[in-house]
Amino acid sequence: MDTKEKGLNTICTHVGEVKDNAYKGSISPLYMSTSYAFDDVDIKRYPRYFNTPNQEALCKKIAALEHTEAALIFGSGMAAISTTLLAFLKSGDHVVLQQTLYGGTYHLITEEFNKFGIEYSFTQGGRLEDFEDLVKENTKVIYIETPSNPLLTITDLSGISEIARKHGLISMIDNTFASPVNQNPFDYGIDVVIHSATKYMGGHSDICAGAVASTQKYIAPIFNLAKNLGGSLSDYTVWLLERSMKTMGIRVRAQNENAQRMAEYLASHDDIRKVYYPGLPNHPDHAIAKSQMKGFGGMLSFELKENLDALQFQKALGLIKSSMSLAGVESTVLSPALTSHALLGAKERERQGISDALIRFSVGIEEPEDLIADIEEALTKVKKLTK
Question: H-helix or E-strand containing 114?
Fold first, then answer.
């Protein structure tokens, strides 16, 4: 199928299907085999080589959604991130990274890269000059995440790609929070696009997966390392992920609308001290977000007033669930200081602006009136406890 003139929901629904030639079923058949013939075949298929029928087809869907030539899928988002970085970095190389990153990525860099002799530098801010000032002779990669986790900062995609081209670097982005529905970094010159497919691609809190999309030129070395590291995805999970991605456009757009509504509600609330959401006009990066995003996403963060306990508030919620992950159809909250960014340590969290009072809110597809009622009830309970 030629995807150039196809709409988002059409791509989500139809690209990357496995044709059921035997029985003409309307969905992809599931090929569970881990062993395929080696003789008289065009392709020697093996699960660890990312080329079983279901794996191969799903990669086409992801590439089409990110407007790239090719893609790979992995057993987790961290498998995708670690394999991609290590495919282009060796001992003596240097990588420039955005200050505000997913906690797992930060931990990977600070705990493991020293073992491989790979140098790294984190920016002190999100301005373009903060990145360029850190580029050295041995720099090979520039790595960003936008919107960032958990403060929803926005990084200028075109500006980063220009810096990368100027210095001959490979630019990479964690595009998880935006999803392909809201942002296509490849269109702005970013070389490699990474996702935790556990999140918006899966969308139902029942899949663990990762994805990388890029040109054939860059996918080749990622594949060469990936087949040796063994971070492949089972075909049953691949099949579930393809099923989930058929509704990704509808789900994410609904979450965009709900998150905007919730951000505006929280921003006007007397019991809320601060709201972080790029769709709000007073967000410091609102203009950049508006220029490069098709929607502002389903993620936001907020802080309660100082006299209200963030953990007690989350426990008081009834409809909105406390959850370690995000981006499911159900709304969830967590405290980054206790979960996703706990490994950073108190000083580093403070430096990044991640307070103990910060609550990350993954907005689902429920009716916003019901979410508001749940928050109001929880705030009432917490305020009674403080008296």
Answer: helix 103-116
Nearest-CA neighbor of 205 among 370, 312, 334?
334
Q: How far apart are CA 271 and CA 262, in angstroms?
A: 14
φ and ψ of 186, to 5 deg: -60, -30
Question: With contact defined as beta carbons under 8 Å apart, do 305 and 358 qualify?
Answer: no
Residues labelled as active-site residues: 48, 102, 174, 199
Task: Show Cβ contacts of residue 86 under 8 Å, excluding neighbours closer than 6 positions.
Answer: 116, 225
Closest listed residue to residue 326, CA positions, set 293, 362, 287? 362
pLDDT mean by block of 10 residues, the chain; 387 residues: 81 95 94 90 89 96 98 97 98 95 91 97 92 98 95 96 98 98 98 98 97 98 97 96 98 98 98 97 97 98 94 96 94 84 68 81 98 98 85
Q: Which two tokens stand for residue 142?
A: 């520039």
- Beta-strand pair 192-196/299-304: unpaired
Give Cα 361 distance to the centre of its chain: 15
For residues 323 and 205, the answer to whether their CB atoms sit within 8 Å is yes
Whether this prediction's pTM lies above 0.85 is answered by yes
C-beta of residue 76 within 8 angstroms of C-beta of residue 209: yes
Q: What share of the chain is helix, strand, coil (3-state, %, to 5)?
A: 45, 15, 45
CB burial of residue 335 (10 Å; 0-12, 13-18, 19+): buried
**Residue closest to 237 by CA, chosen among 201, 213, 212:** 201
Of the candidates 99, 92, 101, the one whose C-alpha atom is nearest the C-alpha of residue 122 is 99
- DSSP letter assigned to residue 247: T
Cα 327 to Cα 69, 81, 251, 293: the distances in Å are 26, 19, 10, 17
Question: CA–CA separation, 209 vs 72, rounded Å?
Answer: 11
Beta bridge pairs of residue 360: 301, 334
